[in-house]
Amino acid sequence: MASDVLYEVCVEDLAGVRAAARGGAQRVELCAALAVGGVTPSVGAMRAARSAAQVAPTIGVAVIVRPRGGDFVYSAAELDAMRRDIRAAQ
User: Fold this and answer.
1) CB-CB contact of 30 with 46 (8 Å)
2) What is the per-residue pLDDT across 10-36, written as a single tens digit (0 to 9) for each?
3) Cα separation of 9 and 48, whole Å?
């Protein structure tokens, strides 16, 4: 059953994607500001992570969509920003 386990690592940058792949992770969750629990990374960071993942094609990249640290109760404006971030991540 160990083969059913998916190893995902939270990373903030290109070096993290590469290190996760070398360490055997199957997927990374790309974040910014992990010190505050992670927020949505920049579009540039998303593109760089995708480029790094092409170097290690066995690794998937997921992007956290979170406008700020703290609780998970979002205003209408924050939800709108999150929808835009999702489109950018796609």
Assistant:
1) yes
2) 999 888 888 998 898 989 999 999 998
3) 16
SS3 of 63, please?
A: strand
Select from 66, 70, 69 the least CA-distant residue to 83.
66
Inter-residue contact 58 to 22 (CB < 8 Å):
no
Contact 41, 86 (CB under 8 A): no
Task: Give the span between the Cα atoms of 42 and 40, in whole angstroms.
Answer: 7
Task: Tokens for 5, please give them.
Answer: 């386990």
pLDDT (tens digit per residue) in 49-69: 887 766 666 788 899 999 999
Alpha-helical regions (H) of 1-90: 14-22, 43-55, 76-89
pTM of the predicted model as reported, rounded to 2 decimal places = 0.82
Task: Let me know: does 4 contact 49? Beta carbons within 8 Å.
Answer: no
Q: What is the CA radius of gyration of the chain?
A: 14
